[in-house]
Amino acid sequence: MKLMPLLLLPSLFSPFVIAQPTCTVNSFQAINIEPTIEAAKYDEKSQTAEIHHQPPMRCASITFQTAHTLNKVVNAMHDEFEVTYADMTTTQSHLIKFSDDAVDSGYIQLRRHKPQTAYACFSTSSTPITSITCKFE
Questions:
Q1: DSSP string, 17-70
Q2: Nearest to 57 by CA among 27, 34, 83, 90
C-alpha cells in the first residue's frame, strides 16, 4: 500500500473564506467642533503674546449597518469606530451617541442589514477625516 502525502488546502467552510465584515459604514458626514478656548503665551522679554489655536475636534454622523442582529450596551461602545485622517493617522472613537428613540434601557438593537445612524467623536486633528470603519462583534 502506497501512502500519499496529504495536502492541507483551505476548506470552503473556513472562516477566512466565508467571513464577511460584521459592520459596514454606508456614509458619514464630518462635523468639526472648533475649540472654544485658545491658549495665549506671553513673552515678557519681547512683550509679545503668541496665540495657539487648537485643531478642531473631529466628529461625524455615521450611517452604518451590521451583518448580524446584535444587542449592545451603548456605554460600552465607545471604541467601535475607527477613523483615518488625510495624513493617514488613525484613531478610535471615544464617544458614541444614538438617538433617544433607538436606545432602550441603555441598550441598542442593531438589526441585520438595517441602517443605523450614530454620532461619534474621535480626537482633535489638523487634517480632515477621509474614512471611517466600524467593528461591531
A1: HH---SEEEEEEEEEEE--S--EEEEETTTTEEEEEPPPPEEEEEEEEEESS-E
A2: 34
Strand, coil or helix: 134: strand
| DSSP category for residue 115 | -
Q: Which three cell numbers stand for residue 74?
A: 451603548
Taking alpha carbons only, the member of 111, 129, 127, 121 closest to residue 27 is 129
| Region label for 39, one of left (φ > 0), alpha (ψ between -120 and 50) or beta (otherwise) | beta
Write out pLDDT tens, residues 64-91.
Answer: 999 888 888 988 888 999 999 999 999 9
Please name the residue that has the C-alpha cell 477566512.
16
Written as one letter, the residue type at 55 is P
